[in-house]
Every structure is written in structure tokens, then in C-alpha cells.
Amino acid sequence: MEKWPDNKAWFLVLPVVVLVCFSAIIPLMTVVNYSVQDILQPGMGFFVGTEWFERILHDERLHGALQRQVLFSLTVLLIEMPLGIAIALALPTRGWGVSACLVLLALPLLIPWNVVGTIWQIFARGDIGLGGAAVKALGLNYNYTASATDAWITVVIMEVWHWTPLVALLAYAGLRAIPDAFYQAARIDGASAWAVFRYIQLPKMRGVLTIALLLRFMDSFMIYTEPFVLTGGGPGNATTFLSQFLTRLAVGQFDLGPAAAFSIVYFLIILVFSWVFYQALEGMGKGASK
Amino acid sequence: MDLTWMAWTLPTAVFFITIATLLAGMTVWDLAQPSVARKGFLPIATTRGDRFFIGLLSGAWLHLAWLGLTDLPLWYPLAALVVWMIVLLRWG
Amino acid sequence: MKVRKRTLALGLYFVFLLLPLYWLVNMSLKPNEEILGELTLLPQNVTFENYVTIFTNADWYTGYLNSITYVSLNTIISLAVALPAAYAFSRYSFVGDKHFFFWLLTNRMAPPAVFLLPFFQLYSTFGLIDTHIAVALAHCLFNVPLAVWILEGFMRGVPREIDETAYIDGYSFPLFFATVFLPLIRAGIGVTAFFCFMFSWVELLLARTLTTVEAKPIAATMTRTVSAAGIDWGLLAAAGVLTIVPGALVIWFVRNYMAKGFALGRV
Q: Taking Cα atoms as reference points, which of A169, A166, A65 lies closest to residue A116?
């Protein structure tokens, strides 16, 4: 399906352009400006060139945060994507159960992020939380405020609890968009459940899974509020991810220059990842439609 | 309107004007002579705009890597970027 | 037998989903002595005191009104600018369309922490700090790209013959868009509004930074429960429960739209 070539369509996009200029371009320019100056107070800055960039690039704490971030994002993606698809496949397709399940699934998504942190902060505590107490009852020495491993696991479980429903809802939307005729044809051919999944359901879900994968990657990569409330980045630096490192730098220590320089590096990382994702999935789409 | 909070400096202003000029130039070029996606030495089929974007992004990373790994001035990667950009646009 | 197993697994997942929520509700109904004392699956001394505190104290309930105000504003703005843009992306090819689309998405991906500082400066310059519109505009950073993205997907599902027929019938673009096209993607608009509401409702970092008193969101008010005497767990849990309520209501209202929107490919 070819689109109509018409540059006048820019007029329809104009409101978005204006809004994005205000909310993205101007702030981004400001960040670039800050990144090359030592700002002592508003309106008083000295040009320092690329000093902040050099310092940030050699910062051990940043390297640590980046490693933890990548590991974290990969872990949650590996759990959430298959789990979300499995849930979507298991959801009922008709009857009253559909609405009930969808409403329940959407529930964690609408909880403010700091409340998600609070919920798990309470739930995972060994003394007053059901989850923590249950794990302790199993004889495990579990304490997310003291053990780095426990804190890490708790943050991952919280993230999975919080966001798998989004993957499930999107995958479910993709599944519902498959006409019954496809299933009937598969039944006539005597296709196995796996074949139906591999050759009908999975390709048809490609679009929504693209969205789910991109959304989940981006959001897990800039996770801030939930671990901030749950563990405060600790114990030590065990759950300090990139956004938290950045906020600490900008607000906690008011190091505007280094924070801005780091923001740019952060943004460039995100840009590369999303470009690669976008291209890979677009290429996959073209391959599948041939 | 007060713009001092944006803390403009000459180098960053030059940087943004350069980028804006390049983008405007690419737009005019594309209007005069629409680009068709083609396959070059890059693993994917790209339009001129795609190659320009890849060039800018790889340029940014080249500069960062240069800063992180060496102490030499940034003119070297800048020169390399210009060459790389031309190669990319022509054969990418 | 296989279907049974599947339902069982789904049931287990829902238990995992609901247990932490149940615990929050459970705790909000207990007095603090009981919370800190013994682990009880059901509250032994049911108390609504925590909720009473929230509903009678203006500091608490204005937080809700503030949040709802800026979230609604944001949803309206996002939809208003995203609808024509999504139409343009779904129907026309124009110079730089793909790059602009991708660049919009990068804004959706950009960590809010990056924009924290310049936003504060920008809104200070315009005297917008501590207003609802400031938070609503700030949240457009990630909601407008998302709205364009989702709407574009829905609009692509509408055959272009409909547009062509309407133009031949003499419809002008605005008339066609408002009376023919929008009703066709009603479900898509519902789903988009849901997502805009959701992402604006749950965001805290920007909302907290851009407000001080007048437009302070409920989520920021919650930090008040931490005092010198330690954390008031019961009150915190009650406030948490109440932040879930508006979201649950929204899901309830759009659930039919959601189901319809999700099944749109069939229509």
C-alpha cells in the first residue's frame, strides 16, 4: 500500500512540531549548553570545553551503573516478553472473563510508580510483609535491605510484576486481530498448536510485539522511581541504575555540568539502542511479508 | 524573553547552527531530488536521510570514544567525521 | 486437560499479581500497632482511621484533585495534537516523515531525568512553576509521541478507499476528519486516551519537580508520611490504595473500548 506523496501533510504535523520544540528541543539544547560549562549559579558559568565529558567517561561509578543497567534491562526483557506472550495465549477469548481479566491485568499499570515501590517495600519486608515473611518461612535468609543479591532479585520481581501486564495486553490485542479464518485453515491442515503459534500467531503479533519490546526496553532503561523508593539504590550501589546516578548528580550534588554531560551520553546510548531495535524489527517485518 | 537561563556559549551556538544548516540543506536537497532507498555497503537499504543520521550518530560516538581513550585534540575525529560522512552518503 | 493446565497457570499468575495489592489493602485497614506487631492475614482490629485522615485533611485530598487536573489536561492536549499528526503519518509520505517519526519516538524513550533541570528553568522563565498546565505540558514529552504512535497504528487499519470516497463526495478535510474518520477510530482514541492517562498518572519525577504547593500531585504528598517518628505505614498504605482507585475506575470505563480497540483488526 503506497502512501500519497504530499508535503502539505507537514501542516497536520505542525502542532506536534511546535509542542515538541517547546518540550524537547529547547531543553535538549540547554543540556548541551550546560555540558560545556562550570555553572556556579544561574547566569554565571565558565566555559570548560570537554572537561566534563572526559571526567564522566572515566568515572568508575558510571561504568558500574551502566553495567548494572544493561544487565537489568536484559533480565527483565527475557522474563517479561515470553511471560507476557504466554499470558496472552492463556487469556479467555470470549465471555465475561475477558473484561475481568483485562481490568485485573491493567491494574498494576495504573499505580503511580512510587506507590509500586511502596507496595513492594512493604510486601517484601521480612517483618511486616507477606512476601518477605513467606520467603523467610521457607528457611531462606532473605533481606533486601542488607543483601545485594536479594535487593537485585526484589527489584527484578517488582519490575516483572509491574510491567508484564503491558506486554500481555499488547500481545492479546495482536492475537485478537487474527481472523478466525486463519485458525479454521490451520485446523483443516491439522496443524499442531506449536505450528499455529509459530506460523500464524507469532507473525501476526509482530507489530504489537515490536511496540511492547521497544516500550519495555526504553522504560526499563530509565527506571528510577521504583528502585528509588524500594532500595534507594542500595545496599551500597547494588541497585543504582543510570537515571538514579544522574539524578543524584544533578539534584543531590548540583553538579550541573557533569550531569548535563552525562545526560548527553545517556541520550546517545538510548538513541543507538532504539535505532538498532527499530531497524531490526522493520527489517524483520519486510522479510516476513515477502 | 529572557534567554540567559539557557546559558548559551559561542561553541554550542556554532554547533547548533551547523546542525540546523545541515538539516535544512538535506531537506532542500531531498525536495529538489527525492532520495530512493538503496543498498550500499551498509547491511540495510537506506535513504540519504538515513545515511545522514547514521553519520551524525556515529560521529557523536567517535568524538566520545576519542575523548575517553586519547588526550589528543578533537580536530582529528572531526576531520575523520567529515570524510566518513562523505563516504557514507556516497557509497553507504 | 490441556486447557485446565492453562487456566491453572493463569490463575497462579493472577495470584502473584494480586497478592501485593491485597497486602496493601490489608495494611491500610490495620492500626500501626498491629502492622508492626504480628503478621496477620486478615486485620484483627479493622480501622478506617487512616482513610478518615486522608479525606478530612485538605493537604491530602487536594493532592488527588491536582493529579486528576493535570492528567486530564495532558490527555486532552496529547490527543488534540496527535490526531492530525497520526493521520498525516498514516496517509501521506512527505519529506523527512520517517526521520521525524523516529525522532518523536526518541523523545518517548528519553529519560525524564535528563530533562529535569532544563524543564525547571524553562517553566520558571514562563512563570509556570507550580501550575497544572506546566506538568501537563511536561508530560506531553512522552505522551504525544506515544499517542501519535498508537493512533497511527489504528488509522492504518482504516482502508483509504473511505477517504477517497469521502473526498469524491465533496467532503472537505476538516468535515471528513471530524464526522467520518474520527468515529471510525473511536476505539483507537479510547485506547490512546487510556495510555496517556496512565503514563501521566504514574509519573512522579517531573510532576514533583515542577510543583511545590498549588499543583502538588498526590504521589508527592505521600512522602509526608515519613516523619521523625518513623514511617506511618497504615497511612502510607491507605494513600497507596487511594491512588489506585482513579486508575481502576478509568480501566472500568474504557474496558469495552479496550476490548473493542484490541479486536479492531477484525472489524
A: A166
